[in-house]
Design a protein that fits this description.
alpha/beta, D-Maltodextrin-Binding Protein, domain 2, 2 domains, six-stranded mixed beta sheet, five-stranded mixed beta sheet, 39% helix, 18% strand
Length: 443
């Protein structure tokens, strides 16, 4: 059984900064809806289980988001009960959200969970910290075939698959009140309708996760490459051009609308008719809009020369990983369990329990999944998104600073030359983070 243990000193720049915000709604979600969930049977699930193998005994500790603790525990216990060679194991499932699991793991890998859920933007630092076992070789081809391309890419560093895809539902799209918003395809029209009705439009433009919707939509690029150990090597960025200038002007125009409110949490929004948010807030928005609840891909913005530009952005994924084990027998047991916890039947059952959108392609084709209007809007938007890779912590701070300056009106009267200078500084600073030589904040 292959074990990979890497000992690397992490720098502060490896700390990703968007995950807590992106997944906050999930850790707060009520577990009441999951109390009546159906647990699939693992009896007919085909994997590498060997009745004659000695898998050992002990405890397997699992960390997942709070609203799937009970679900995960019951699924894991059913699997062990159905496989007698695993009867020596007990399962402990603890509530540790995707935004906290990676930080906890790299703080003390040995004391961390054997199996844990995390957001894909944490992959690089988990690999660098030696907190992730490579996916069992016998599972790799099946996982790549069963799950969508974006989720597989999100679980990969270099050519190595380090995690098991669990969902394809971490992205953002438009929720809107259809009694107010008459044309959800146009940002200009959405703002016009909201202003006329005295309602608000929410989008968090001082976030490095939401802000790129404008820049990526306009055709800009900002991405980081990592080596096989998860260390940042290069940054490809092209914000300082006409495309970036168009995006910057659109952000400034948005903040100047009297309907605009900076934010992305539906539970904190007031008097709103539209919000850019994710699937984790679907229940909150549906309660707020009632019969007027509607969802759509992100709208277009209009450039100075009248061109309609489709907003883009990041798509994201939940993954499950397992820590390296000194005991090959326990590692084999964990390989079996994590493979099942991320399998087609469990992904579909998890959707039915708490509406997490599957990464498994067969589960995505299920009628219940396809009928979910929030997931449908997200899936439509993902055609215009890029999978979120690994970004250094300083990037998120820098993006917040850019958004704060826009919201504060610093660029309201700026010339094109001034805006281009700001974009050049932003781009150069982002590129410097890969080399570890940039200033910690833009001048």
């Amino acid at each position: 059984m292959k074990k990979k243990v890497v000992s690397v000193l992490l720098t502060a720049a490896m700390m990703a900064g968007c995950t807590t915000a992106a997944f906050a709604g999930e850790t707060e979600a009520s577990t009441e809806a999951a109390e009546s969930f159906a647990i699939p049977s693992s009896a007919d699930f085909e994997d590498g289980y060997d009745e004659s193998f000695d898998y050992g005994s002990g405890e397997i500790k699992i960390w997942v988001a709070e609203n799937v603790v009970d679900f995960t525990k019951q699924v894991a216990e059913e699997y062990i009960a159905s496989h007698s060679a695993l009867s020596g194991y007990t399962v402990t499932v603890e509530p540790v959200g995707e935004g906290d699991a990676a930080t906890n793991m790299i703080t003390d890998v040995e004391a961390g969970a054997d199996i844990y859920g995390f957001a894909q933007d944490q992959l690089a630092r988990l690999v660098a910290a030696g907190a992730l076992e490579e996916v069992a070789p016998e599972n790799v081809d099946a996982i790549k075939a069963a799950n969508d391309e974006g989720s597989v890419a999100a679980a990969t560093v270099g050519d190595t698959l380090y995690a098991y895809p669990e969902t394809s539902d971490n992205g953002y799209f438009l929720y809107y009140d259809k009694s107010v918003v008459t044309d959800p395809t146009s940002l200009d029209k959405i703002l016009e309708d909201c202003e006329a009705a005295g309602k608000s439009f929410y989008m968090e433009i001082n976030s490095g996760w939401y802000q790129p919707a404008f820049f990526f939509g306009a055709g800009c690029t900002l991405k980081y490459d990592t080596d096989t150990d998860g260390n940042f090597t290069t940054c490809t960025a092209d914000y300082a051009n006409e495309n970036g200038l168009a995006a910057m002007k659109a952000l400034i125009k948005l903040h100047q609308s009297k309907a605009f409110q900076n934010g992305s949490s539906a539970s904190d929004a007031t008097n709103y008719a539209a919000i850019v948010d994710g699937t984790w807030d679907a229940a909150t928005v549906q309660e707020a809009f009632g019969d007027n609840y509607a969802c759509a891909k992100l709208p277009t913005f209009t450039t100075d020369d009248g061109k309609a530009v489709q907003l883009g952005g990041f798509s994201g994924y939940k993954l499950m990983g397992e820590k390296p084990q000194e005991d090959d027998a326990k590692l084999a047991a964990c390989d079996l369990l994590i493979n099942y916890l991320t399998s087609e039947p469990v992904q579909l059952a998890r959707y039915n329990a708490v509406q997490w959108g599957p990464s498994n392609k067969n589960a995505q084709a299920d009628d219940a999944v396809k009928s979910n209007v929030a997931l449908a809007a997200l899936n439509e938007q993902m055609a215009f998104d890029i999978p979120q890779g690994q970004y250094p912590g300083d990037y998120w701070t820098l993006a917040t600073g850019l958004g704060d300056s826009i919201i504060g009106g610093d660029y309201d009267s700026a010339s094109d030359d001034d805006l281009m200078a700001a974009l050049t500084d932003f781009q150069t600073t982002c590129q410097g983070y890969a080399a570890g030589v940039a200033e910690t904040e833009a001048e």
